[in-house]
């Protein structure tokens, strides 16, 4: 696992871990409860759920600083959950299932390293949980990286839309207009953190939506997770894409890209009118001065729902993240 970044005129940085975990916001199937289960210090509240979520709590050891869950449903493909901070061995929260009903295998991994990225994690424990909720809630619900159920995220999303409605003198914005309002707000609110990429301190920073919101700075992963959280808080399907980006106008070409060494990038896709459309808030927010490397805000809409033929000249997706 790694988190890679190189400084260019346009910022490029992204998670290379697949991050997931989602929460249910509406009533779900009623099920009979099984019982809590504790393995190596961590307790799951139950082994059955009809709400697509299970809480966990415990102490996995003071030597660990970060952890994450990996999971499979009915023996399918493995997915990795968001990196979690371990405080003096304590680990607590909620694990969310967005893939619908089925039998899930959860595996907990942790590391004693002081950074969450570019390090090895060791296996800690296995759990099995049955989810009877039949709904597929992917890309609509909160995740550990895009906490769309957080009160300040919800409040901010509502305020963004209300202000945009007032400014445009309309009673209600369309989903695409709401998406544009969120795009513009995030682009103006966050400042790209060039210093953290130069001194590598971004490796020790959380890059979830709430952390980005509170910090007001970040790299492209922060722009993307905050955008995702705000859109989902408005009931709009959104997801984060990890991939590569080049600047053709600077003479860069795909032939020069090496997937093993080239910096990665993150952006969004928004689901409207039956299709996923790309949105790159980071590249629309501004750029670094080529001489001073000082970040300058300059809001544009070049990468808001662009034509795919244009977008793919500079962006190449490698994976749809689970967050």
The CATH architecture of the largest domain can be given as: Roll
The overall pLDDT average reads 86
Question: Based on DSSP secondary structure assignment, what is the total number of beta strands?
Answer: 20
> Given the C-alpha coordinates, what overall shape results?
globular
What is the name of the CATH class of the largest domain? Answer: Alpha Beta
Number of domains: 2
The fold-level CATH name of the largest domain is C8orf32 fold
Global structural class:
alpha+beta
Tell me about the biggest sheet? 6 strands, mixed
Sheet-strand content, in percent, reads 25-35%
Number of helices: 7
Estimated radius of gyration: 20 Å
Helix percent band: 10-25%
Ends apart, CA distance between termini: 16 Å
Run of helices and strands: EEEEEEEEEEEEHHEHHEHEEEHEEHE
Q: Low-confidence segments, ≥5 residues, pLDDT <50?
A: 1-32
